[in-house]
Amino acid sequence: MKVFKYGGASVKDAEGIKNLAEILTKYKEDNPLVVISAMGKTTNALEEVARAFYLNQDAFGKLNYVKQFHDHILTELFDSYHSIYDIVSNLFLEIEWAIEDAPRPNYSFEYDQIVSFGELLSTTIVSAYLKEIGINNDLLDARDVVKTDNNHQDARIDWNLTSKLIKEKVNKDQLTITQGFIGCTSENFTTTLGREGSDYSAAVFATVLEAKKLVIWKDVPGVLHADPRYFANPKKIEKLSFQEAIELAFYGATVIHPKTLQPLKRNGIPLEVRSFINYDEKGTWISDDSETKPATSFYILKKNQTLLSISVSDLDFILENHLSSAFLILAKYNAKVNLVQNSAVSCSFALDIDDLKIDSLVNELSNYFIVTHDFGLELLTLRHYKDEEIEQLLLGKDVLLTQKNRSTIQVLYKL
Ligand code: ADP
Ligand code: ASP
Ligand code: MG
What we know:
Elements: E1 2-6, H1 14-27, E2 33-36, H2 42-54, H3 59-77, H4 84-98, H5 107-115, H6 117-132, E3 138-140, H7 159-169, E4 176-179, E5 182-184, E6 190-192, H8 198-208, E7 213-218, E8 239-241, H9 242-251, H10 261-266, E9 271-275, E10 284-287, E11 298-311, H11 320-332, E12 336-342, E13 346-352, H12 358-366, E14 370-383, H13 387-393, E15 398-404, E16 408-414
Parallel strand pairs: 1-2, 1-7, 2-4, 3-4, 7-9, 8-10
Antiparallel strand pairs: 5-6, 9-10, 11-13, 11-14, 12-13, 14-16, 15-16
Helix pairs in contact: 2-3, 2-5, 3-4, 4-6
């Protein structure tokens, strides 16, 4: 039994869906369970619908864009009399019902009821297309098996119930198509697992089904030593240990969602990251026993970082109680702390934080601390670095903060 996962980029248009069908034709004897994300940038577009709905703006107008995008894909894949048109229209009707009445005060709840439709649409379309070309499959509603708490937008899996239901409902002798990213509470409300959460959903299915491996099909040849968006000629890694992959994900290598790796490692299920474009080529094999091959350094770049520094008036020492209250405030604003550095009288944090929240965060911290901040910075992390590489990468950069140990260096700089 294998589990496959395809992200938004693999199904961003009709060509992508045809390509996915070609890959599945090749593997159909294996009857994989296939986890699919929303098509292209649909999740972003539905986030805009949710936001407009919540702010009493033109949510229907924003939804129109999502409709047109999916309609266009449908007309390229199906004849005009196909039943899929009605099925997809009904899904859009459900979204319209969700945004007809006034929003509830809980934005995250409303978000989940709307944004989850991206995955419902993509899987419905892919499943129908596969059937159309003669690849039989079960379309499984992930909400019938992936049970979560009601922490909307970042729901946590109820592993016991989810395991029981997946084992009951997945037919291992049939190709199954299901959604990543979404789940359901015990009261039957839809939840989402956090942005980019489909990799994690795939890991949950692979773990419960005791899969031989999880294959994540990407627009890159595998895990590379650096993000190809920012670094030229990145090298493909053939083998990687879970340990190293967890470190890379933790420092922000977006090729794998951080939560994905732990359940796989715990259950000894290897992960393969490979290309959906050159789908016959080997990718990266991630398992418990693999050394990194070829041995290399890794570069991880996080953009749009905010540097926030706090100090206590009169040059008082920064003590544990100060830090704990600062962290509570950071958590309240969902700031993700990527680096912390403190001296006797100040503490600095490099953060990912929503632009809309920075002012309120600084205001609240200013009740207790002297606060300075700077934004639009970059955080470069190098694992297994060589000093020459750092010098080269930092040429012409205004370095604000550096932190290093034997295997890792992190540098925060201004461009
Ligand atoms: P998905 O379609 O599965 O959601 P993502 O866009 O989340 O795919 O992940 C693939 C992207 O991850 C690549 O296009 C690449 O830009 C980025 N990426 C970041 N770091 C790395 C890395 N070390 N190796 C490969 N890809 C990386
Ligand atoms: N569609 C969701 C997102 O874009 C989940 C995922 O793709 O992993 O965040
Ligand atoms: Mg992704």
